[in-house]
Amino acid sequence: MHIITRKRLLEFSKKHPDSEEPLDRWYRIVKQSNYKSFAELRKTFPTVDQVGSFTVFNIGGNKYRLIAYIVFSTKRVYIRNILTHPEYDKGKWKE
Asked: Is 2 within 8 Å of 77 (Cβ atoms)?
């Protein structure tokens, strides 16, 4: 899968150093994969959720949320946002 853009992962991990390792692990797994559907993605990430047109990953033991838009047909993952759990709960990312 082609992840757009890793820069967001790196910027977030600078603000939240404990997120660096789990975000890097997520990045490596997704980059090396070739998912054809959400169901296939869920085999690797059982806690992933579909919220509207976005895919929400639990990162770092549910401490962080990675929100992405995935186009399975073109193998692209667009990172929309990475949030702490409290930021995610506010729901402003849906706007």
From this structure: yes
Rounded Cα–Cα distance for residues 18 and 16 (Å): 6
User: Across-strand partners of 48?
Assistant: none
Contact criterion met (CB below 8 Å) for 1 and 77: yes
Which amino acid is present at 32?
A: Q
Q: Which of 49, 83, 50 is nearest to 66 (CA)?
A: 83
- The beta strands (E) that lie in the chain are given as 2-4, 49-51, 54-59, 64-71, 76-84
Token couple for 71: 């186009």
Residue 5, exposed/middle/buried by CB under 10 A (0-12, 13-18, 19+)?
exposed
Q: Does the pTM exceed 0.70?
A: yes
Q: Which amino acid is at 68?
A: A
The 10s digit of each residue's pLDDT in 48-66 is 999 989 999 999 888 999 9
Structure token digits, residue 88: 């995610």
Domains of the chain listed by start with CATH number: 2-94 (3.30.2310.20)
